[in-house]
Each structure stands twice: as structure tokens, then as C-alpha cells.
Amino acid sequence: MELLQQMPPGSVGIVYQARNPKLNRVVALRQMQVPDWLDDADDLIKRILAEARSANGLAHANIAQILTGGYKGFTVFVSADFVEGKYLREHVNGATPGLPEVMVLARQLCAAIDYAHGKQVVHYALNFGNIKVLPDGTLKILDFGVLRDKNLYAPTPAKRLENEHYLSPEQVKGRSVDRAANLFSAGVILYELFTTRNPFAGRHLGEVDRNISEVDTIPANTAHSRVSEPVAKVLSKALSKSPAGRFASGQELIDALEEALKVPVAPKTAPSAQGKPAAASKSSGPITQSVSTKAAAQPKVEGTVFEGTVFGAAPAATGKTATGKMAAVAPGTVTLKPVAKPANKAGQWKMMVGIVAAVFVVVAAAISFSNRTEVPPAPPAEKPLILPKIDAPKEQAVAPAPTPQPEVEETPTSRHTGRPIRTAKAEPVNSSAPVVDGQLTITSVPEGAAIEIGGRSVDSWRTPQVIPSLAPGVYVVKVSKAGFATEARSVEVTSGGHVSLEFRLNPTRATLSIGGTPGASIAIDGKPTGKFTPAEFTLEPVSHSVTLRKEGYFDLTSDVKLTGGQTTNFAPNLNIAGRTDNIKVVGGASKLFGGGSHGMSRLIIRCEPKGAHVTVNGAAVPKATPLELQLEPGNYEIVIEKDGYKPLKRSIVTEANGKTTIDEVLPQ
Predict the structure, then answer these.
(1) I want to staple 457 with a disulfide (CB 3.0 to 4.6 A). Which of 255, 270, 428, 452 is the partner?
(2) What is the mean predicted confidence (pLDDT) over 341-362?
(3) Can you list the domains of the chain with their CATH numbers?
């Protein structure tokens, strides 16, 4: 097996991208170290290989298949398909998938789970970190067949917290993984795909575990407006605390989601649809009869808008309101019925006089109110995704108040003419134009910063963002992004105005915690730090090159990307270098009759052109290529050099009684 590169640290063992010369393919090689002090170490090794062997039979388009497995001493090796693609977390963070794409991913996820369960195989850590999406949209589940034993599970603190969010209540309580637990984890993944947030988010392991096992999940339609109530009910069932309350299979879950998505969603009543009628409802009483006498002149309007709002009447007992037409409500008829009853003429005249008086009072009141400046209601946002309108702060809002009539000027004029004159309209200061909302555009470098306006924030507000409806006033706008210092500014929004704000965020410092093999010297960006693992460093929030060195181990160099304001954990285990003091060049009779010690491995090196010099883990071999070496099983770095050609480096892992061949053409 030829090692190509070490993959980012996971939760179980070390994973390499490697090339299997026998299969002639690139694979993911996982190396797991079983503690030799365990009383049942042999049993654990057998369980690891048995689990890998059972997953070897999973041949499904959405599952990365286990290929080979074996062990040497207390080190277990398992190889699987190497999947090129983005992890699901990267895929959804790059561009939030729409509901159709979410369902495509959901069908593939559930189909793979059902297939594995049909083969009596369960997944021990089903989460976002074990799912990849190929460029063509194909979903692949990784690590089916990788046993998650407490003696093998060694994630970084941050990785463990990330994985914890996808455990079932049974797993939190220490029970074994089964089908119901896998379907619960799938439900968590689907909830997060639908709502863009995890249902059990917490700041530490204890809080996450309590959210999983005790706290009721927030309905998905509350977590995100794009989720309908029927879909939310399906997801809530998938996340039932009791295994018996969940779906029995992934297909059953998908069928329920598809049915829920077919249910038509009742359109929400627009805020402006009841603006004027609601104002009219304030005058329930005498104005009811006045309006009812002109009911025939009203335009044909849906009864659902006006029923019980303008007229204050309950739906007719005949049930005609079900049609939604004005005729179904007929409030005018109900109001005027008492007039039609037989009565003496004097009583009728009294009633008519009362009606006329009431109408006169209402008209006078309407005229009085019409002299005041009216602030029309703000138009609703054109885009349904824009959040509700924010009113200006009370102490800063520019709310036009009715301008009182200047009595000093009006009173003398009234005495001369005998009638009031509205001199306020002659004064420019008293002429108030209708106030309309302003618009605010917020951008930042980098983009994606969270926005807070006047102390209020909403999850979907991310720069660049346009807030189309803000009451005139002065606001404090804050933007924040992980790894950058929070910025705040004051801005004044005027009536009908459009204001733009641009923020340039300054990155903050980051913390790098380096662990792994203890006692290794640390160099960062090529400069020795003088510190040894474990150690912590405060650095700029950029990518840094970290090199670890320890005698008897291979050097390791890796790039680590830091995020401002956060702690990044880097804890690789260095590979023990194979011995070089007992390497032998095989040839002559030994080669002819198959000589050599039992348990040793063989390394054959050929190259073009011939006559190249070879070093193994830094030790020179006293023979030029082609050659064959006998060495102990282990990790080796081979360097092949010849004058006039570029050096060729290869990393290999040799096995007991095995043979490894390097056959290369030296680059010029």
C-alpha cells in the first residue's frame, strides 16, 4: 500500500489517501491502534474485522464500500472506497439547497440506510461528517463498517461536540446502536437540511445530551418559515424520544415527507389587506346602519376579508359564508330588519330622527378627524423572505403629529366672516406630506455577517441585505461574523429615503491547540517554536503550516486553517518509523531458495534509468537499483536519487510476510 497523504483528523484512527497497487485504485486507508494493555485486545481486534467484513458486502450507489482489512500486532488496517467530493456540511454551507434538492438528498440517504439494515449492518456514527456529495449530486455515506468502540474513539473536543448532536437518546444513555438509532440520526440530518439548523444545538456536551434526551424539539416550521406544518410533524415523529414512536424504515419516512409536501399551504393574509377595513371597525355602532343602507353600492369583495372585521357580525346561520362572497354575510339585511316590523308611525319617525342624528354625529366626527394629518399604513414588503418591518425607536422615531390649528389667527377671522377659516393650510410648516418607510442596504467585507438593527436580529439577515421597510428614525446597526470584530454604526433613515452602509470587518486573533503524540517538537510556518506537544499558540486567523518532529517517528507537516476568535485543535498521531539497522539486501542463494526470516517483509525497487541510489528512512542502501530488501513490517519513506534526475519520494506500509514493489520512471 502506497501512502499519498494524511487526511484531516477524524474520530477513529488515522486515515490516509493511499494507492493499492493490487487493486490499482486509490483508497482510504484507516489505521487503528488497539491499546495493548486491554485484557480483551484480541477480542476487540476480531470485532473490528468482523464489522468491516460484514460491511464489505454492501454494494450500493450511496455507500462507500469497505474493500480490505487486516492487522499487525495491535494495529488494524481497513481500506475503503476513496470518495472525491464535498462533505455534506461544505455542500450546504456553499449554497443552501432548496426543498427539491433536500428531498433528492433525503431519498438517497434513506435508501442507503434501508439497504444496509437489510444486510444487518448499522452505522455507528451517522452524521454530517460521514456524508459526502459528489459533483453530480450523488450522496455517499462513509464509514459503514467502522466500529466505534470507546477504546478507539478519540476525537478532538471540538469534533466530539460536533458528533454529539446526531446521537439518539438511546446512545446518549449508553445503549448500543440499532436501526431505530440510525433512523433518528437520519431525522436529525433531514431536520438540519430543511431548517439549516440543528435541533439539539448546545454550547457543551451536557447541554446537547439534555436537549437530545429530555427537551422537546422546536417544530421545524417554527425554526424556518419555508417548512410547512405537515412536514414539521413528519420530522417531529422522526425525532421522537421513544424508538417505538419513530418511523420503522427510511422509505416510510420518505413517503410521509412526500405526502406532507403535497398538502397545499394556506396563503397567509397580507398585512395590508385589512388595513382600511380594520380602521372602519372602530366605528361599530351607528355607522353600521349607515353603511348597511349602501350595501348594494359596495364592490364585490371576498367575505373572508370583511367578515367580523368591518361589520362585527357573525357568519350567517345559513352557512352561505362558505362561498366567500359578500352576499354570504349580508350584514345590512340583518341590521335593518327591525325597521321592517309593523309599528306605529310615531315610533318610526322617532327611529328615523335618531338614525339621522347618529349619521350627523358620525359625519361631523369624520370631518373633524379628516383635518388631522393621517399617516398611511406602511406598504407590505414585496418579498416574502424579507423580515417584518422594524419600527423606529420610540425616543428617536420621526412620527408626524397632527398640527393644531393656530387659534390666534383663526379666531379673529371667524369673528369677521362668521365661519371658521382653516388658516393652517396657508402655512407651509403645517402642511405635512404622508410619511413613508425608508430603505436600508447593508454590505460587508467579507460577506455573510449577521445583522442587528436597533437591538433586533433575525437569523436570515446576512450581508449583503436589503431591508425595504424601515420607519423613519435613527438606528444603531451592528454586524458580526465569527473570526472578526463586531462593528456598529448609527444611521438615519428618512421618509422615502434609501441609505447604504458598508462595513469592513477586522479579523481577530485565533488559538491553535496542538496535541497528538506527546514530546514532539513544533515548528510553525517553518520556524521552530521551542515548544513540545501538547502546547497552545495565539496566531493570526489564517492558514498556518505546522511541522511536528520526534526521534523514531516520521516528521509530519500539515496546513491548519484558523478562525478568528475560536480555538482550533490539531492532534495528529505521528507514525513510528520502521527500523533501518536490520535492513538486508536480498540476493544470491537467499533469493534463489526463498531465504529470509519469517515475519519479515520484502521490498522490491526498480526504476528507469537503472543505477539509482536508495535511502530508507534516511539510511543509505549499499546497492543501486534494481534491488530487493528484507525489512521489518512498518512505515517507511523511500527516496530514489540519480544524477540528472529529480528525487523520487514514496511512503509505504509493509506487512509481515508481504511483498511491496516500487517500479517508477525518474522525473527529469
Answers:
(1) 452
(2) 61
(3) 2-81 (3.30.200.20), 86-262 (1.10.510.10), 276-370 (no CATH), 438-504 (2.60.40.10), 510-570 (2.60.40.1120), 584-665 (2.60.40.1120)
